[in-house]
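In response to reviewer comment 3 from the previous cycle, which asked for concrete evidence that the modeling workflow produces usable outputs, we include below a single protein chain processed end to end. The sequence was submitted unchanged, and the resulting structure tokens are shown without manual editing.
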Amino acid sequence: MTQTRIGDAATQTGALPRRGLVLLGTFVKPDGPRALLRTGAGRIEQVAPGDRVGGVTIAAIEPGLVHIQTGGSPGRLRIAGD
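The workflow returned the following structure tokens.
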């Protein structure tokens, strides 16, 4: 398979929302759970519970799910495409 075909197979145009925080994945490190988020500015951030990113606080991380607090209101981020 050529590099171009590999790249095409590994990406889906329009699969992720263009704005806001997007959950890319969750994982566990020896010191606790982590998540990878894409910010509205397009940066990829590794976060842990208690971190602040994109105007929200990371409250908890579960497999495929991040609990957030925005201005005192709870919310959830699910892995994009799920």
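The helical segments are 3-10. We consider this sufficient to address the reviewer's concern, and the full set will be provided in the supplementary archive.
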